[in-house]
């Protein structure tokens, strides 16, 4: 059956890294039996410019009928002063929530060849393999009321609401317990239950769920401590489950343990098999257009897509092995290189991964 894959290149480095994903998908189709049809649409700033909406109806229709979606990244300074509904990031939030993509899987693993690129000592990051499960369509990102207003004394204020329903906590909890059961059997729920009622409920729901997963050992940690523990001794973690905002922050932090934010892929899943796949990093306007972007997070996101949405586990393994091989062969983009003068550009890295598929 032909898989319909929707590509959303987005802004700044987005099109550069998605071009490498397209090269990879075309090679998998030509020589490794992947039956895929690629479609393209606008999301983010490019959609604002082309269609006047960061998540246009045409994109929505294609997204709803696709078997899987690959996103580059959205956003950039030229759209930062727009009203919120005209911002690229709003398009991303809308596609996640419209498609019900509540479970965001952000694996952080260290390729042994990159131990020297990590900002932590090699002995601290050796063997790193953790999974952050981030709730993606609730919490303070979506809570109402929100807005900007002027107080009676004339002072402006901005406000947001952090709210989680027990049903929302339960479904992300199930996703996380199931992921932990498939991996090392340890789940750490990260919250701020010492201060926030929404976290008090979160902790209670996670504790209740644990009875249904006797093979998983549940622990709890406050988010401030979790941020510290991630850089002190990341290998104490197997799976972390947390809310939308905490997961956003902790996953960028975990990314750096692997050598670069340019290494971290992600999958955003609904409760069927539909998924949107994207690197954890953003559109990196500071390096756009210069061939400096590391495409590996995007190529590893393609591997996650093959595994989670397209039922092509063998091809997913092949892509991950190809990435491991190019790193073993010494290919490094500037973000990973010890000698940036000898770094591979985006295209060279992408082509090297494609070449390694054939070994
Ligand atoms: P960013 O992740 O884009 O960049 C942070 C730093 O990491 C920059 O120095 C950048 O050059 C570097 N970097 C990021 N990806 C890289 C890669 N693949 N290779 C090499 N270096 C890389 O975060 P930011 O600067 O805070 O945000 C820039 C824009 O991206 C903003 O508009 C933000 O809203 C948006 N954003 C989008 C997404 C997304 O689309 N999923 C995620 C995060 C940020
Ligand atoms: C991410 C990004 C997004 C988020 C922004 C761009 C809306 O930082 O995917 O991590 O905060 O979820
Ligand atoms: Mn983020």
UniProtKB/TrEMBL annotation:
Role summary: Catalyzes the oxidation of 3-carboxy-2-hydroxy-4-methylpentanoate (3-isopropylmalate) to 3-carboxy-4-methyl-2-oxopentanoate. The product decarboxylates to 4-methyl-2 oxopentanoate.
A GO MF label: NAD binding
Cofactor remark from the record: Binds 1 Mg(2+) or Mn(2+) ion per subunit.
Binding site for substrate: 96, 106, 134, 224
Signal peptide: none
Record site feature (Important for catalysis), residues: 141, 192
Biological process according to GO: L-leucine biosynthetic process
Subunit structure: Homodimer.
Residues that bind NAD(+): 76-89, 282-294
NCBIfam families: leuB (TIGR00169)
Keyword annotations: Amino-acid biosynthesis, Branched-chain amino acid biosynthesis, Cytoplasm, Leucine biosynthesis, Magnesium, Manganese, Metal-binding, NAD, Oxidoreductase
Catalytic reaction(s) noted: (2R,3S)-3-isopropylmalate + NAD(+) = 4-methyl-2-oxopentanoate + CO2 + NADH
The species this protein was found in: Spiribacter aquaticus
Annotated protein name in UniProt: 3-isopropylmalate dehydrogenase
Residues annotated to bind Mg(2+): 224, 248, 252
SMART domains recorded: Iso_dh
Keyword Amino-acid biosynthesis appears in the UniProt entry: yes
Pfam families listed in its UniProt record: Iso_dh
Cofactors (names): Mg(2+); Mn(2+)
InterPro entries per UniProt: IsoCit/isopropylmalate_DH_CS, IsoPropMal-DH-like_dom, Isopropylmalate_DH
Domain Isopropylmalate dehydrogenase-like: residue ranges: 4-353
Location within or outside the cell: Cytoplasm
